[in-house]
Write a structure and sequence with these properties.
Helices cover 57% and strands 3% of the residues. The protein is mainly alpha-helical. A two-stranded antiparallel sheet has the order 1-2. Strand 3 and strand 4 form a beta hairpin. Helix 13 packs across helix 15.
Length: 435
Amino acid sequence: MRTLGYYSTIARLAPGGLARGMARRVQGVARQALYRRRERLEEPRLLEAFGASTSEELAERALSSRPGGAWCEVRQRSSLLEALAELPGAGERALERARAALRGEYDVFGTRVCFGEGQPVDWSRDPVSGYRYPVVPVEQLRLERPGVDPKFPWVIGRLDCLVALGQGYWAERGEEARRGFARAFVARTLDFLQANPVGQGVHWTCGMEVALRAANLAQALVMFSDAPEARRPEFLVPVLESLAEHTAWVEAHLEDKGAVPNNHLVSNYVGLLVTGLLFPELPDAPRQVARAVAGLRTQMAAQVHAEGTSFEGSVPYHRLSVELFTLALVVARGQGVDLGARYAARLHRMYEASRAWKPPSGGWRRRWATTTRAASSPSRSGIHASRATSHRWERPSSVTRSWRRDPSRTRPPGCSDCRVSNPSGVCPRRGPRAR
């Protein structure tokens, strides 16, 4: 959302809404104060939480006796492989993504970065500018520097590469190749944890990034739960401790202090929900899951319009929101948690809006790449640079055509009555906007 959009949203808030924003700031300060005084989760408390008497028994408690049916559970592997087989090229794409992760290869907003198979990752380095952020307490870290953008190392530090390695572990048929993915998962995870202590360095400066990393790490750990490499105490103990530290950090640094919370807060809740549901034995998980469920229900209503469009008025951010809300729903349902009929219905409408915005010629993917690269360019004004591109389609979209076929449908975005920008560039009522 552009700055003007935020201010217009703030202007529509009742005084009570602004007061609640100030109250959230005060609550945030209190949460951070409690976080600084909290007792860190060490191995004895971790074993007690999982009902294990020894670190060797922990693997059985944490990784074998697993209730629920989340998509990443090992027993889901066969059904997932069947689904991949039904989609043309899906299995090959999954393996290629996994092998790229194995090579230490990352796509950083269109820039290819490769560290090499078995090599450590330079986690704190901006691969575009070459600047390396110091590993110091976040309070002492200066993020804003000319020509440097923390989003570049953040992309690498989200650890979605671990889920990609899990895809290879599941999709690969050869046993030795599967063991290679498991070894890479263990090495990459420990490399990150050792290079980025809690609360230090660029990867702890944004609650959204910490939350997404926790969700990725938790899902990947479950995917590898039957791999001997992942069940060793010298790996499993620090990883479970780190998951607890990640969620504690996110809960203490919820990004809800602005008058208009956005997808950062949604990411915070998704990280708390996914991690807490997959590992409910972690000491703070029940409270964090309850907070996340309530928060996601609230933010779905607050950040998504009734017709299914993101309030931020941006195609890229709409897609990001769809992915976040979907991950929460999929994991919650697998673990028997209901996010509510309204949540599911509005998410369904978000998919309908996404499908309507796809041009008939298949240009969505090309335009998507353009907006993503624009968002990451350090020569522009940060991520908001993508909005100027994402709102400029040169031809009528399927939103326009479907609305004309059936005007009784929920009004598509496009004019001031809708209170949201129209990514198609064509308003069914007023025609193309001036460029």
